[in-house]
Each structure stands twice: as structure tokens, then as C-alpha cells.
Amino acid sequence: MPNTTDIKNAPIGVIDSGIGGITVLRELLRTCPTENFVYIGDDANSPYGTRTAEDIQQLSLALIKHPKLVSIKALVVACNTITAAALDDIAQNYEGPVFGVIEPGIEEVLATTKNNHVGILATTATVESSVFDRALKSANPDIEVTSVGAPKLHEFAENNLDLVLGAPTQEIKECVVEHIAPFIDAGCDTILLACTHFPPYEALIRDIVGPDVNIIAPSVNTAKALRDTLEEKDLANQTTAKPNYEIISTAGNDEKFKKFSELLLK
Ligand code: DGL
User: Fold this and answer.
1) Potential cystine with 13: which of 55, 72, 184, 261 (Cβ 3.0-4.6 Å)?
2) Residue of 230, 259, 251, 234 whose CA lies nearest to 35
3) Closest by CA position to 112, among listed 139, 147, 79
4) Pocket test for ligand 1, best of 76, 80, 249 (most atoms within 8 A of CB)
5) Integer Cα distance of 98 and 38 in angstroms
6) Are 102 and 80 in contact, with CB atoms under 8 Å apart?
7) Which ligand 1 atom sits nearest the alpha carbon of residue 123?
8) CA 122 to ligand 1 centroid distance, Å
9) Which residue has the least CA distance to atom 8 on ligand 1?
10) How far apart are CA 224 and CA 93, in angstroms?
11) What is the pLDDT of residues 1-31, one digit of tens each?
12) Does the pLDDT at position 266 exceed 90?
């Protein structure tokens, strides 16, 4: 049994289907700056967003058995698609605190929308799971949810993050316009970026929807939930050693992960 100091110093595990969860890691590092993180991206099996729920459950349960996650003190499921399909299975198979990205996103949406018209931008698998529709409607039956699956936006961010962030091509801009149009048509006052790959599009979406629409990334609330739980459970790292993070790809394509992290974590 590790002693209390060892547990507090232990890293926090972060799992994702691939590279996109680095946008969540960015928020975790900002909100919990004294913690250490081990990030595992399952690029060997990515994307998850076009897979079946059964497939995603199996892959996720295998992912949490990664040797690098053996001595973590908490687990963050950075991926919306994994959270939607497998959070319960993961929680049953890992005994420490587990954090997904869907509940924090839903809480933020409920606290933000004024006109009860909400847009969800996600992967096809997350849209098909209807997890957001169910949760939002059970919290507030008056909410109207417009969901858009956006595999093409996922693909651009995956392969051309530098362009998305810095110099979007006409093709990227048009793709964003096309995917945001249903939210504008439905009069959404709040859009949830319910895929790890979508926070980098925030500026482009803002240009289209104007200043009055709320654009939410669930990772902000997830990071706060992690920080608060670590405090409550007396698990926060209190050493003064420089915190660090390790990013591992199950496909071993470290250069791709390095490039993506350099763009997001600089
Ligand atoms: N990380 C996933 C999410 O947040 C998207 C990537 C994938 O399809 O694997 O939904």
C-alpha cells in the first residue's frame, strides 16, 4: 500500500482515442499546475468516432490497462466518444476517481443557455449515442438540442492543426460554415464543442456566430472538477518539484504527437 505522500505525488492518467485529448491536457495543466500527468492516446485504433459503442467499450477497457497507468491517483477520460460509450465500464474497472467530459459540459451548457436552444458539435458516434440530448432534456425538458456530427472537422484538426489555428484555408473555413449553419438556423445561443478536436476551431466559429453566442469547451469544467476532487479527497500534489507530463501514443508515432503538443501546449 503506497503511503499518503506517494499517492499525492502520483500522476493523473489521461486517456484519449488519439491526439485530440491534448486540448484537454492543456486545460488540466492550466487548472492543476502542480500535478503530473500521463497521457495515453490510442492512435493505434483511432479514430473512435466512427466505431460502434461495443468496439469503443472494448478498446477503452484495454486502454486503461496500459502499464503507464498502473500507479495513477485519478483518471481523466478526455475523449467525448469514450465518455459517451464507456465511462460506466471504465468506472467499474478502475477504483480511483474517474472524470469524463460529458457531465461537466452538460452542467456548463445548462448554466449558460438563456433561450434553451443548444448546439452540440461532436463525432458521429457521440451524436448517435444521443447522450447529450437525453441528459439535457432530462435536466430541462424545454431544451431544444441540435446535434451535428463533424468527421471532416476532426480530420482537418488531426492532419492540419497548424492551418486550423493559424492560417485556415478556404476549404477549412467553408467546412466550418457548413457545420455551424444548423446551429444558426435553430437559433442556438450556446454551442458545445463536444469533441477534443474542436476547441481549436473556436476563433473560426466565433467569426461566424458573432459575439452573443456562447461557445463552450467541456474540458474547462472537467479540469475544475478534477482540481476540486483532489482537494476534497486530500490527494492534491503539494510538493514544489516542477510538475511534468508524459505523452504516449499507442501507435508509437511520437513525431505527430510532439508536433500537435507543441502547437497546443506552448
Ligand atoms: N477524442 C474524440 C472525442 O472527443 C474524437 C476523436 C476520435 O474520433 O477518435 O470525441
Assistant:
1) 72
2) 230
3) 139
4) 80
5) 14
6) yes
7) 10
8) 8
9) 49
10) 24
11) 456 778 999 999 999 999 999 999 999 999 9
12) no
